[in-house]
Amino acid sequence: MRRPHPLVAKYYAYQATATFGFFWPIFTVFLLSRNLDYTQIALLGSLSAGVGVLGEIPTGYVGDRLGRRASLLLGAGMRATSVFGLAIVDSFPGFVAVYAVWAVGGAFASGAGDAWLYDVLADRLDAAAYTRVRGRGGAVNMTVSAATMLAAGALYAADPTLPFWVGGAVNAAGIPVLLAMPTVERGGDAGDESDSGSTDANHGDARLGVRDAAAVVRKQLFAPAVRSVVVGLALFFGVVGAADTYIQPIAVDHVALSETALGPLYTGFSAVAAVASYNADRIERALGATTALAVVPLAVGVLLVAPSVLLPVVAMPAFVAMKAGRAVVSPIASAYLNEHATPVGRATVLSAAAMCYGTVRFVLKPLGGVVADAFGPLAAVAGLGCLLVATVLVGRGLAALAIGTDTEYDPASG
């Protein structure tokens, strides 16, 4: 197998550190052990989404104004700090504070990471390789997550806080990796920058002001070819994020898996998702971007309804499909939005899209928690699946009416 270009290798190394594998398989169980109920856990998720919504535009602006790498460094530092904090706090208000830091750190990384990758590929390699590199970077992340998840249950059994100490250290390792990555100038022209140590430069009209950022978002995010896709993606990511909360209690209480088995279960999830992400560009070529962004969420929605209609054990294959579906959709969606954004303001536009995703999560998380407390987690997952199916079908019809003819967008055409 041919070695990746050094720039791409650095991106893959960064993706390897951006993992929550050491603690994610036991996260909900850990929160329940801290005497939180489903509604409180859902409210924490909603808080995280809400803080992320408020932070996406300003953090995206930081990425465009001060540089993508500076934004990524802030994000990596805050995420590592928040993971360490999870090992320390033991009350609902404490978790609220830690979740807020986590959300802001995620907002700093959300738009800047994809904008950095697209810009550096466009300048030094080939922008058409974005979906492939982004998808395989996700595969690296998920492969590392799969390996680390195997240890989650054992670490939790030894000490419930140990997964967070180890996980925080891995996240912190992303900081030196980021420092070794090249910066790119705003406007997408990296020029003759060296691969490390250089700083982002300002270039007159490439300098993005606050009013310019608002105008960029209005013009690019609300274009007909983009807005319908963003709405559909917001529902998809919102449903997946809310349904993910209930995997662990369903696995333990309805499928009779032990807490120790959660690590291998999540390893399986990540392994399948890694394969899906690795092949995202092939799926994009086979179906086309807009078709893939409709078909995959529709299939996931149908499968999430199945456990409550058939047998609870069907939930595990449904969750496998959900994880794989998200792994496929993420790079295709990111490539689609990058191709529809101009170099100046790209991180702001991507952060604005992430803000839309966070808004939907903000609403769905507590609603799912209330349903889960009242009727159980299986009912919450089924309700989320029904919502996703209905939204995809209605949204697809409205998009066809708005655009007139449903033309397939080809990322390779630029």
Count the beta strands: 0
* Biggest sheet statistics: none
What is the overall pLDDT average?
A: 78
Element string (H = helix, E = strand): HHHHHHHHHHHHHHHHH
General description of the model:
The structure is a single chain. It contains 17 helices and no strands. The chain is mostly helical and 414 residues long. It has a single domain, classed as Growth Hormone, Chain: A. Helix 10 runs parallel beside helix 16 (346-375) and helix 13 crosses helix 14. The longest helix is centred in the first third of the chain and has 33 residues, at 92-124. It starts with 5 loop residues before the first helix and ends in an 11-residue tail after the last helix. Residues 186-206 and 403-414 have low confidence and may be disordered.
Characteristics:
mainly alpha, globular
Task: Please summarize what this structure is.
The chain is mostly helical and 414 residues long.
